[in-house]
Amino acid sequence: MVRDTKKDALRDSEGFLQSAKDKTKPNRVRMTNLIHSVIRANDALLLHFGRDKPSNHEDAASKFTSVIDDKGMVDKYGRYEKNIKDLLGQKTPAEYTGKSYSNKKVKNYQKKAERFVRAIEEITG
Predict the structure, then answer these.
(1) Does residue 1 carry a pLDDT above 80?
(2) CA atoms of 9 and 2, how far apart (whole Å)
(3) Which of 33, 56, 76, 99 could form a disulfide with 20, with the two C-beta atoms 3.0–4.6 Å apart?
């Protein structure tokens, strides 16, 4: 079994984020990449603090909240809980139902994903 590291997760997160910026891809694919960028950034946070990664995406936001609460970072990073919840709430529609997204909607979610990823990079140093 290959061991997942914080560095791997951050690299993956950035790769998904960059791929999501490719406007030649369908917006649904771009959304999926944004979602996976946030998932991998959250994995990096959890790995950084020696926590288990969630077994499903529904648990990712609560694990994020638990870490920042336990580490006393709610004042500075608590606002990013909404970002991860908003993006994870689009996982099923984007990946399984074929929901369509406007360019404006993708851009909005892209900003949320970028903010979340940058916050995780700041936390994990």
Answers:
(1) no
(2) 13
(3) 33
Contact 42, 64 (CB under 8 A): yes
Instruction: Return the pLDDT at 2.
Output: 59
**Over the stretch 68-110, which tens digit does the pLDDT of each residue have?**
999 999 999 999 999 999 999 999 999 999 899 999 999 999 9
Place of tokens 């690299």: 11
Q: Which two tokens stand for residue 25?
A: 């891809």
Sequence ranges of the domains in the chain: 6-124
Q: Classify domain 6-124 by CATH number.
A: 1.20.120.330
Please spell the DSSP secondary structure of 23-66, one letter per residue: TTS-HHHHHHHHHHHHHHHHHHHHHHTTPPPPSSGGGHHHHHHH
